[in-house]
Specification:
Length: 392
Amino acid sequence: MRDINAFHIASADDVLTGKTTDIYFERTLRILKKRGIDSRVVAEVRAKELPLNHPWAVFAGLEYVLSMFDRLRLNITLDALDEGTIFGAGDVVLSIAGRYADFCVYETPLLGFLCQASGIATAAARCRKAAGNRELLSFGARRMHPCLAPMIDRNACIGGADGISVVASAEMLGLGPSGTMPHALILLLGDTVTATRAFREVIGKKVKCVSLIDTLGDEKFEALRVARALGKELYGVRVDTPKSRRGDLRAILSEMRWELDLNGFKHVRIYVSGGLDEGQITSLNPWADGYGVGTRISNAPVVDFSLDIVEIEGSQIAKRGKEAGAKKLVRCPQCFSRRNAPLHVTLSRCACGGVMKNIHKRFISQGRAGVKIPSVTQIRAHTLRELRRVEL
Ligand SMILES: [Zn+2]
């Protein structure tokens, strides 16, 4: 077996021993020690802007940060939003109080965990919002380093994906993997109907039979041919038509739906995949019953969080461009508006008359575990509730 380092991945131990830090933190730590500086600080995480200037994003990746700090047994206090909570540009999503020297080298992995997970959850949530109640599957593992697949799939689920395709991810998350069939199966069996029958016979009735109908012929005629051959056994058809052959995908789907209905195949669902984003999902909604989304979710732009000191030994101080002092994020349960508020100021009224509520929770209290992270399914349910309060 070749050396695993050929994959160029750092191990969990590398993260915990601080090896995945930026060198300037290691050098800072050396200088602080040499000068005998061991100050207690409050540092907070927020993003000045959101990816693609979207109005909201979904907070994710906290479980990774807590797992890291749990194992390190650092004497810190950590407040944060629940994973799956909607936030905006400038909102404080997490704050840490403790000795700077204890956690400074972990800034790099902490931000990396949050930035990428939140980017993926946000992209998935936007697709979820666009798709409404239609099925949304995350198919983008193949666009990313395979060692990241379970992380990508977890955060796609948190954002609202109904299913994930990678076997290892499904095992880790305790979910059943979802998928249809690749073009290779139809090419190797030589015909769409033959391949779909083989799928039904070999894979069995527990797995929904969704036939890929764009490999060798016209989408409409292949869909009808498979529907006639399989009848009620056919759950759906998937269209993954290459761009060079697409023409007007909306018109193709509309025609397919018409012909399937006309021929008594109203039960056959139409799935679409292939380079989809939330805009295309919205435009295909009149005909599609489900979507397989790849790159848009797995290669989502990250949320550019930064970590900044806002207090040193109780004195409120921050760099240029940031507000000093420990903060909480308050939100109005009635109109959903949010704002950062000084930590010790008592709760205030919203312009709409509602009482603003602190939505930070204490996940670590002086080194001891506080609120526990819920399961992926519970976090996903929280995200879906949050999404009802925002527009795409
Ligand atoms: Zn309000």
